[in-house]
């Protein structure tokens, strides 16, 4: 009888420990990674606090999904390696869904979608063609879809210059160290063209919408086996789209429909 009671106590203790361990695991914060160099989507304000459209949308999604989330900083080109090595759990950094990235990560449903464009000086006379970009210095953020697009399309004729942050791209364009830049149309407009530093610059060429490069929209990225987490975010995206939370946040940053078709 004593042995039976002792065994029962041991089993009870083990089960209790497992439940407690599971509870602790469940309470572990979901680490959202961004490079914070991409205003008005993601950046850090004067106090060093994460801010921007991506940040507010993520906060709303975490609240809706009842997830305890925290932010971690990571350079853009290190976002996916960091995720895969479990230094973060989710990439929330205006990352576009592309076939190449889908081979490595699991994407949520999109939370916005925009085309990409070139920007150059208003009097530069640049045309977007191999001839028009011959010898020109084109600035892009390192490791992005924009980097891949200009490299594939114009890498043989132009001088492609790659930067760790989009803010660095704008500084070199304004100072004359670049002839053109390529990036998301909305970000180029809001963070550069509509600012004082963007005076004398304009969009050139047509908007680029090729899904092979531009992708299927912008989404959160997770490890492929985190399907339950992805589903929580998908449900939360649908909910904040339906209840007006998404539109309320978007209206603070954009005068157009950022969600897209």
Automatic annotation (TrEMBL):
<dbReference type="GO" id="GO:0030288">
    <property type="term" value="C:outer membrane-bounded periplasmic space"/>
</dbReference>
<protein>
    <submittedName>
        <fullName>Nickel transporter</fullName>
    </submittedName>
</protein>
<feature type="signal peptide">
    <location>
        <begin position="1"/>
        <end position="25"/>
    </location>
</feature>
<comment type="similarity">
    <text>Belongs to the bacterial solute-binding protein 3 family.</text>
</comment>
<keyword id="KW-0732">Signal</keyword>
<dbReference type="Pfam" id="PF00497">
    <property type="entry name" value="SBP_bac_3"/>
</dbReference>
<dbReference type="InterPro" id="IPR018313">
    <property type="entry name" value="SBP_3_CS"/>
</dbReference>
<keyword id="KW-0574">Periplasm</keyword>
<dbReference type="InterPro" id="IPR001638">
    <property type="entry name" value="Solute-binding_3/MltF_N"/>
</dbReference>
<feature type="domain" description="Solute-binding protein family 3/N-terminal">
    <location>
        <begin position="29"/>
        <end position="257"/>
    </location>
</feature>
<dbReference type="InterPro" id="IPR005768">
    <property type="entry name" value="Lys_Arg_Orn-bd"/>
</dbReference>
<keyword id="KW-0813">Transport</keyword>
């Amino acid at each position: 009888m004593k042995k039976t009671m002792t065994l029962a106590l041991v089993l009870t203790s083990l089960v209790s420990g497992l439940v407690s361990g599971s509870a602790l695991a469940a309470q572990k914060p979901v680490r959202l990674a961004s490079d914070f160099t991409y205003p008005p989507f993601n950046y850090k304000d004067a106090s060093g606090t994460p801010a921007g459209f991506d940040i507010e949308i993520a906060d709303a999604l975490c609240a809706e999904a009842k997830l305890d989330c925290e932010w971690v900083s990571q350079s853009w080109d290190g976002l996916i390696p960091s995720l895969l090595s479990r230094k973060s759990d989710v990439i929330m950094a205006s990352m576009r869904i592309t076939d190449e990235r889908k081979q490595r990560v699991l994407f949520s449903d999109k939370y916005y979608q925009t085309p990409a464009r070139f920007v150059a000086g208003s009097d530069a006379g640049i045309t977007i063609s191999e001839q028009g970009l011959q010898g020109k210095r084109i600035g892009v953020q390192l490791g992005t879809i924009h980097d891949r697009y200009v490299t594939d399309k114009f890498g043989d004729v132009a001088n492609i210059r790659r930067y760790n942050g989009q803010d660095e791209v704008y500084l070199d364009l304004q100072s004359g160290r670049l002839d053109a830049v390529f990036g998301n149309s909305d970000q180029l407009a809001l963070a550069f063209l509509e600012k004082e530093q963007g005076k004398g610059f304009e969009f050139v060429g047509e908007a680029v919408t090729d899904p092979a490069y531009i992708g299927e929209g912008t989404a959160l990225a997770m490890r492929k086996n985190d399907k339950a987490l992805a589903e929580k975010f998908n449900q939360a995206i649908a909910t904040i789209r339906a209840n007006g939370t998404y539109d309320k946040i978007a209206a603070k940053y954009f005068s157009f429909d950022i969600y897209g078709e």
